Amino acid sequence: MGGKITTIGQLQGKKQGGHKASKQLHPKSRRAQQLIRIGLRDQRISHGKKERREIHKTKTERYLWFAHAMDPEEESMSVEDIHELIRLYLSRHDEEIAEEVRARRKGRPKSKRHEALETDRDGGKADYKLHGFVVPDLSSVECVKQLGLWTREDSGAQQGFLPRIRLIRLYSQDSAQHDQIVVVQEGIKESFAQRSVMPKSKKASRRDAGKPQEESTKRLLHMAEQRKAAQADASSVPLPAMDVDDAL
Predict the structure, then answer these.
(1) Helix (H/G/I), strand (E/B), else coil: 133
(2) Would you state the pLDDT for residue 136?
(3) What is the pLDDT of residues 60-96, one digit of tens each?
């Protein structure tokens, strides 16, 4: 028996009685039901991918906001300062929401933009209180360095930097877990960064140290070959031969 059919291509390529299935299908036939199930499956997969992309985009924009909000001259900041940045981040749309309220006529429903801004703000505040708000650990010097590399113009805020960023979860003041700091992602550590760089520098130093001796050997060998060639061509006074081992 064949495997389970999960795509339309597999279904169309399947033969019945040595002949391909007809394009006209009865709406209650088994193949029509298969097509319906495959179509629904494709919709679920596409919808799931879209949701994951939106979630990833939202998180990336949040981390970049905190990276740009920090003073570039500071190497790190205190946890209380990070809490202050979180409150500033959650209220970043307050002016636009107030503008939407003033522009809305009496008796008219909220605009989609107004609803989206309020949903984002209220959802963030709820997470901050109940589940914790995930932000880059700006109290870590190494994390701040990685954020600086991530936001550089030539890096283009590549998503490959995300695993390097140390992430923590903080809770609002009116939460029972306010004093907790939960590490969500370790990110790259300073010791790991040094270990990953030092072997390469040691190899490079050994290679650079051996270059003078290697170049000297090549130069002496070249000189010996020139003397032998000159001795063979000379017709008057032969030059003394120079052995390669002596040159070395």
Answers:
(1) strand
(2) 94
(3) 889 999 989 988 888 999 999 999 999 999 999 999 9
Where does the chain have alpha helices with state H?
Answer: 8-13, 30-69, 79-90, 94-103, 112-126, 141-150, 190-233, 244-247
Place of tokens 């749309």: 93
* Domains, the chain: 28-196 (1.20.1440.170)
Confidence of residue 244 (pLDDT cuts 50, 70, 90): very low
Which is nearest to 124 in space by CA: 115, 133, 114, 136?
133
Residue with tokens 């052995």: 243
Q: Which of 162, 154, 166, 147 is nearest to 65 (CA)?
A: 147
With a CB cutoff of 8 Å and minimum separation 6, the contacts of 240 are 227
What is the C-alpha separation between 154 and 102, in angstroms, rounded?
Answer: 41
